[in-house]
Hints:
Shape: globular
Strand order of the largest sheet: 1-7-6-5-4-2-3
Distance between the termini: 58 Å
Largest sheet: 7 strands, mixed
Amino acid sequence: MADALYDQRLAADALDLVARAARSYVDALPGLPVHDRAGDHLLDQLDGALPEDGSGTLDAVDQLLTIGTRAATHSSGPRFFHFVVGGSTPAAQAGDWVTSLLDQVAGLWAASRFATRAETVVLRWLKDLFGLPASYGGVLTPSATFANLTGLACARYWWASQHGVDVTVDGLAGLPRMPVLASGYVHPSARKALQILGCGRDTIQVHARDDAGRVDLAAMDRALAGIDGPAVLIGTAGEVNTGDFDPIADLADLAERHGAWLHVDGAFGLFAAVSPRTAHLVAGVERADSVAADGHKWLNVPYESGFAFVREPELLSRAFGAWNARYLEAEGDAEINYNSLGPESSRRARALPIWATLRAYGRQGYRAMVERHHDLARRLGRLVDQAPDLELLAPVPLCVVCFRYRPPGVPEAQLDELNQRLGAALLADGRVFVGTTVYRGMTALRPAIVNWRTTEADIDLLVSVVREVGASLRP
């Protein structure tokens, strides 16, 4: 029987139903397979015609929980090593529930001073965490792709203004192509951002000195010298196949020498700044003109979460302030319309889970997590090196380990096909989740370790399952 939509008594009962299910699910999560195909048949229960008369609040929520807890990919668990996805810390997950509970209109300070102040605070905390200057402007975004879009939109505004054009008002008509230079590490999300901005997905000039994609600084220097006018450089802090880094300080030197804009894509690699052990990997990021990163990776907050920082704060409102809303730069000022500082106008209060997790665990908690994951990645690298049928394909600078299955006696010409089948078989097996990539022309696995729940036992299981499944595929 359908409920009356205005029956407020059911709201708390529905939330209580979720809370009861959450306790058993969260307790079981560390031991669950990442994906259990036995639950796939439940997906059909999601389908069907739109109900004429609904089944009622509690029945609908109960069905969703029954299907979801059994058929969903358990990507918040400790063995989801695919796609560089973190889980959600307990504080962040609860903070996200608070976000839905309060359902704030987060883009306008007049609509929610609470959400605005929370965003202002977490942006300041994040700059502190990453060692970025407090003077940088910032905005929370749904992802690193949107953060790249935000930073590169500011770069485009700056670049067009060097040609005497207000691109926000007049667009790109009549302007030359914006020169964008990068190493071979540049991520597709940066290309997608340029595509959306009308600059062209494939217009990036890639300057790489080898087939791994490492930057050729001398070639980039010569190219910049030959460009008539300003240019944009993209540096990558944490390449997805191996976790390697562009030399950010060297790129900053090039940008200063040639009057270029430096954008750093630090989707997960920016978190290297959190530990003195790994901070050298992002040395120079504080000199970048814009910086992008994800929250739903190593910050371990729920999807969707990202952030963008810009050296000149006023460029955010110039690139996105179509509403002519004020942007008051005074530190701590609550009257900021964040929908005028980024691509979204309708925004959820995604600052709340970030505030909760940073308040709960602080700088030292995140330093400990980064260092523990770094240790786990190095452990995985050692196990791969020691295994007679595995081959480490790159050093392990941070949290990604690139390797392949290479049993004795299998010809080189057959290894790519074998590893492709292995990747598919691992995803079907479901005990651990790790897919394939192509690195230096070789099909490889590239697990990323960024989940707060992951332990040594999970790393050891990953190696064991890879070898077990791989052996079952050998001719």
